[in-house]
């Protein structure tokens, strides 16, 4: 009740909203990462989590006036690009159903990507659903450092993601 009252009380300000969605799934564990994560090869594992996230989006959306636009949206992780293109599209659709998303690039809609998890089609889907900023997971280009932190990715994978984004 206290949270609801505080959230609804912010509506008087009319200020824009910022949303963060945590997608905790990763293909492998990177040793430097302190984020809440689930390392798995099972690409079906996010489905129940995403269903609950959709419910949470609906509950939270009911607290805020639709006149308050979402100026900042960020998907972090884990590795948000672990989920399928269809799951990404659905998550953004559900978000737009309960919050007022901008339909231009005036806001900052960002996502953390793992260059090992994306290709040109993935980048195209991210742009299609509204992302206009990417945070690239590049810890180091030195293979010895990559091995030490368990984040092996080729220069080619990294530059391919950068070039696709351009």
What does this structure look like?
Strands 1, 4, 5, 6 and 7 form a 5-stranded parallel sheet that branches. This protein has a two-stranded parallel sheet with strand order 2-3. The chain is an alpha/beta fold and 166 residues long. The mean pLDDT is 94. Helix 2 (46-61) runs parallel beside helix 3 (85-98). It has 6 helices and 7 strands, in the order αβββαβαββαβαα. 39% of the residues lie in helices and 19% in strands.
Helical/strand content category: alpha/beta
Low-confidence stretches: none
Q: Rounded to an integer, what's the Rg over CA atoms?
A: 17 Å
Straight-line distance between termini:
46 Å
Describe the global form: globular
**Helix content percent band:** 25-40%
- The tally of helices reads 6
Biggest sheet overview: 5 strands, parallel
Mean pLDDT: 94
Question: What sequence of helices (H) and strands (E) makes up the elements?
Answer: HEEEHEHEEHEHH
Query: Strand-residue fraction?
Result: 15-25%
E-strand count: 7
**Quaternary state of the chains:** single chain
Layout of helices and strands:
Layout: H1 2-9, E1 17-23, E2 25-26, E3 38-39, H2 46-61, E4 69-77, H3 85-98, E5 100-101, E6 108-113, H4 120-128, E7 133-136, H5 143-149, H6 155-165
Parallel strand pairs: 1-4, 2-3, 4-5, 4-6, 6-7
Helix pairs in contact: 2-3
């Amino acid at each position: 009740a206290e949270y609801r009252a505080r959230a609804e009380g912010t509506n008087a300000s009319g200020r824009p909203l910022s949303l963060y969605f945590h997608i905790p799934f990763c293909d492998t564990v990177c040793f430097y990462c302190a984020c809440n994560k689930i390392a798995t090869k099972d690409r079906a594992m996010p489905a129940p989590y995403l269903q609950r996230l959709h419910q949470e989006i609906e509950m939270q959306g009911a607290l805020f006036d639709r006149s308050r636009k979402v100026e900042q949206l960020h998907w972090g992780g884990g590795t948000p690009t672990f989920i399928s293109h269809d799951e990404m599209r659905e998550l953004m659709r559900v978000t737009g159903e309960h919050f007022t998303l901008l339909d231009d690039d005036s806001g900052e809609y960002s996502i953390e990507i793992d260059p090992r998890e994306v290709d040109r089609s993935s980048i195209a889907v991210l742009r299609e659903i509204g992302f206009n900023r990417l945070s690239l997971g590049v810890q180091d280009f030195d293979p010895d450092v990559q091995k030490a932190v368990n984040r092996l990715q080729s220069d080619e994978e990294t530059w391919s993601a950068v070039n696709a984004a351009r």
